[in-house]
Design brief:
alpha/beta; seven-stranded parallel beta sheet; four-stranded antiparallel beta sheet; about 45% helix; elongated; disordered N terminus
Length: about 525
């Protein structure tokens, strides 16, 4: 997707996690996907700002805190620690972590509410209708399926109460035109059809308040202290409150390049509420909503009720963060759903990582120590095998980076590991263990060139998968004697950068699980 507009910080956000839940595979995937995008952009030389955080207000949080016998903020402190620990364990390189209870956020939400109220965009009216406590939203008859409320809404009750409403409906024609005329606003593009379909029905104005007598845990309306702000109106504002909305530095970040979100919160929060809110306060819309799919178990969505929830920390603790990150990015086609199973994870771990990559590094280090006194030799011989390897290296670099640019990380990784397998084939073709037994000078030259080319190919592969496996990549480069600065250099060049570098001692990069 082409970048348009002035050069500013590349700004990417995740959806902020809801404080009432616990970290699961979906949270982990969204953060890893976002981190891979940001690390890829940093490798390309862009200055980046990466935001994630916690959505803390609302009725469910208030109820959970009451059940636990603590105040809502203490409850959220505990939850925030869990999600921040997930980021740390997964090696997520976020630059900021926003919590919607923070004063910097509350101030911006209240200033936007006051501005919209002063301009007549918010009004008070009586509401009579259906309410879902689980989703904390008002419903209409059209939300029913076959005459029944979908399970996602939980218990639905009828209520009558006075509330404040934002004039959402007035912007419906503008939003439809915007989505149709901005090809990259929703990615993948087929998700835009879902939004347009939703917008075929007339929009109701958005209820943006809850009476304190029903909900006290929220941001107080600045123009009526008997009410707090609807959790979605509050939460969405984090994307601008975190980067200084209303200050001189805001233009260094906004508009965001990507809001990375799950498909379940595309309609209506991110594709209807948020664009209209931004338009109403005179801000540009984010460049793109990057909408990812769900992880399934045997074709079904993971849920507590089905007992098929995957705790990402179990896999990370057993296999490490990078193999887990690799599996998520290799298996999921961004925008589509994907099936998770431990057997599939183990197959990827053993085949791609342990067999292809781990064994390549191990055999290279072993041979360099045995045949070249522990230093990577010079490549002085270039025959058909070498030319073929170099051609594939150049093609792999350009193709993989192009695929990463297009969010096709699963295909980019497939391309890189196809190259890794070709390096193993190159080793089999040249058979350095046989060349080492020869006393012929030419064979000695071929032996040195083979090991040099294997090392350079491995360096190149390690650089390419840096966004996905940053720790493994850095370790491989260190074992090859490469400086840390070289992590981001030589992406498309197959050269002699490692000549005479001391190679590390043999290691098992991906231990076989018991």
């Amino acid at each position: 997707m082409p970048y348009q507009g002035r050069m500013k910080n590349f700004y990417l956000t995740t959806a902020i996690d809801y404080a009432n839940g616990s970290p699961h595979l979906g949270h982990a995937y969204e953060k890893v996907l976002s981190d891979v995008i940001v690390r890829h952009m940093r490798m390309k030389g862009r200055k980046c700002h990466f935001l994630t955080g916690l959505d803390e207000h609302g009725q469910k949080v208030q109820q959970s805190a009451k059940t636990a016998g603590i105040n809502p903020l203490d409850f959220c402190d505990t939850q925030a620690a869990k999600f921040e620990e997930l980021c740390k364990i997964l090696d997520i390189s976020n630059d900021d972590y926003i919590r919607t209870s923070q004063p910097r956020h509350v101030k911006v939400v209240q200033s936007i509410l006051q501005d919209l109220f002063d301009r007549g965009e918010i009004y008070k009216a009586e509401y009579k209708g259906f309410y879902s406590a689980r989703q904390e939203q008002f419903l209409q008859e059209k939300d029913k399926i076959d005459g029944k409320w979908p399970e996602i809404f939980g218990e639905v009750t009828q209520i009558t109460e006075s509330n404040y409403f934002f004039k959402l409906s007035a912007y419906q024609p503008w939003l439809i035109d915007y989505i149709r005329s901005h090809e990259y606003f929703i990615f993948p593009r087929f998700r835009a059809k879902q939004v347009i379909e939703f917008l075929k029905e007339p929009l109701n104005d958005l209820c943006i308040s809850r009476p304190k007598e029903r909900l006290s845990w929220g941001i107080e309306l600045p123009f009526d202290t008997d009410y707090v702000t609807y959790v979605w109106f509050d939460a969405l504002v984090n994307y601008i409150s975190a980067v200084g909305y209303g200050t001189d530095t805001f233009a260094d970040y906004w508009p965001a390049d990507f809001h990375v979100i799950g498909k379940d919160i595309l309609v209506p929060p991110h594709s209807v509420y948020w664009p209209i809110m931004l338009h109403a306060i005179g801000l540009e819309l984010p460049k793109s909503l990057l909408v990812h799919g769900w992880w399934l178990s045997s074709g079904e969505k993971m849920s507590k009720s089905l007992g098929n929830i995957v705790n990402p920390l179990d896999l990370v603790n057993k296999f490490g963060a990078d193999p887990f990150r690799y599996f998520l990015m290799r298996e999921m086609n961004v925008g589509q759903d994907s099936d998770f199973s431990f057997d599939l994870f183990l197959s990827r771990y053993n085949s791609d990582l342990a067999n292809d990559l781990g064994n390549l590094l191990s055999r290279l280090m072993n041979m360099v120590h045995r045949y070249c006194s522990g230093k990577i030799p010079a490549a002085t011989c270039e025959e058909d095998f070498e030319k073929s390897l170099k051609d594939q290296a150049a093609e792999t670099s350009s193709s993989a980076l192009e695929l990463f640019d297009g969010m096709q990380f699963h295909l980019g990784l497939d391309k890189i590991f196809s190259f890794v397998r070709s390096v193993n084939r190159y080793a089999e073709q040249r058979a350095p263990w046989k060349l080492a037994k020869s006393s012929d000078t030419k064979d000695s030259e071929i032996l040195n060139s083979t090991l040099a080319n294997m090392a350079e190919a491995l360096r190149l592969a390690a650089v390419l998968f840096t966004p996905v496996m940053p720790s493994v990549s850095e370790r491989i480069l260190s074992l090859l004697g490469a400086e840390k600065a070289e992590l981001y250099s030589g992406l498309t060049e197959f050269g002699s950068t490692l000549e005479n570098r001391p190679i590390g001692e043999k290691v098992i990069l991906f231990p076989r699980p018991e």
